[in-house]
Amino acid sequence: MNRIIPYLPSRRIVHVNDIAGVGASLVRGLREFGEDATLRSIPDKRTVKNEGALALARLANIARWRLVANRYDILHLHYVTHSQYLRGFKGNVVAHAHGSDLLGRRRTRALKYAAYRADIFLYSTKNLRSLATQLRSDAIYLPNPIDEKVFQMGLLDRDTEYDFFVNCRWDGTKGSSELLKIATDLLGKGFTVFGLDWGIDAPLARSVGVHLLPLMNKSNFLLALQRAKVVIGQQKLGALGISDLETIALKKPLVANGELENLPIYDTYGRNSADLALEAIEELQTSAQKTRLEQASREVKRIHEVSRVSRELVDLYEQI
């Protein structure tokens, strides 16, 4: 009788940090390809509110990490300013830039060390290309992964409760001044605007009349997107973040600055954002809008579906 020999992974992979669920999605995807992949989180302001307690939690987390770090063959670090996790690690390193770690240009020494130490340097949105290649000329674009369940949810119809929902945090990296202008304009016209109680400018959003919801888990966030007639995304980056891509996957009209993405959204680049938001809600349920939403969702699935991105990442690991 032939004995079935199970696939035994030849390497142990750890993803450190979970930026917008990217680490968790990639770990699940890698496991589907038989990889021995694990996720380790870094404490952040969502889990530890007090600044002093957060600093202590991060120090303790690094200490625990260093006790186990060299059990792994590949360290995939998300958000490259956390390069302290690379020190003392003896295996191969993948450094993965996600946005404000490069755009903020803070902790330049940490950025340079991550770029120096990495065997592969990845960036997650096209607008980061110039900054990423300044650090590493061989930097590689890896699209952000979107879970298959998001596309499945997009097949379901749900009752809408919000006229507009802002899907990102209220701070400068997301274009909060423009977001506040849009919200103020729409509220003045009698529409309801909802968003998350998240970001340094969230109190300003509340003060102009935006209904702020508490931070929530991914499942509830996706439901909030579905409850909106129109979703307003980031207004500054020129590339779409995870929540923007999830919005498109759910076949919801998105008003965002997506100048580099070439997707059929309500692109605010060089346009009046509030006018575009009104245009989007006026076109609800028209055949033209439905066609655009279907097309956009298919394109996001083609490029960003987690299985496709995970397959690309496996191929990159093979090059190390």
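The above is record 1. Record 2 follows with the same two-line structure.
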Amino acid sequence: MTPKIKSIYIAASLAGVLMAGMTGCTCVDEPVTAGTVALDVSLPGDDGSRGLIENLPVKVSVSSATAGIVFSSKEDTQFPLQLTLLGGEYTATATVGDSVPASFETRYFKGNETFTVSASAPAQVTVVCKIQNTAVAVEYDPEVDDVLHNYSLTVGHSAGELTLTGRDPRRGYFMMPAGERDLTWTLAGTTDTGAEFVKTGVIRDVQPATLYTVGISFAGTINPAGGLPIEIEVDTRAEEITVDNVINDAPVIGGIGFDLNEVVVLNSGDDFSDLVVGIASTSALASLSVSSDCFVPAGLPAPSIDFVTASADDAALWLKKGIRAAVKEPTSAINFSRFFQTLLPEGTSTITIRAVDTAGMASTATLTVTVNP
């Protein structure tokens, strides 16, 4: 920055000399002063450790009304940094993350801050970048499972779309193309008769930094004889994305090597494999529990256990019956061993898995197992 300051100072001095010659008066140049600014970038809720933006691309530019852009960061620029600038008013603009049309993981943050540089007092500026995405999540009422199976919700715009399969707890993040304000959605599944079910709709005039939750419920009555159309109601609610729910997504629960949304069928004489359920979380888990009415009849000491808070002795009792958990960030796992599966009674058993992280974000999933004689 020093060469630029020097050249401007010389230009200003030369202009003063020329003006003095033209007017015949004696003029004294006003020196062009410079000052420093300590510049940093953060996200809402950042405690200064930079943990929230670690490994994310950060771009910063500094501009003034008179000189335009006077600084642009590079890929290897380290923050916080110190700049030396001519005295005056400036605006720092920063972005964190990547702007992509649709993603479950990639988010985009942007912010700006105006500041003054003077020789008398160094400036300290932190640009807080706020989320720019529009987010979409889906919630299903339990009754939907009575009439609709293998369902999914696809949401998108002209530049990209995302599919939430089953009771996927994740959020989809969208950057809207220029001139577009609506997101379209398609709910698809199959009925009890195997018929295809499709319903479409639009979330209109979506806004950035807003989460839209698509609530899906069964609005009709089940006709055992069939033949009546399924009535599905869709209600969309909007809420501002806050500090808590932008940085932390709810844990994601899924089967490893099998589809947790499908019934696991065990036939007598089969060579069983361990059933492993994985839990991915953006924060440490405060609770990881399993519960089922089948546990006590199968010889387990209780109908439920929280593997995060359970004592070592309690965890050992469950291990003897073939259920164990490894709790760690960012991926935890629960193993239902082959031995445990042999303890299950004939018929269908359901096991509820619930994960809650330290940010208060929670997810629930169900493992359904049918044992045939």
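Confidence is low (pLDDT under 50) at residues 1-28, 224-228.
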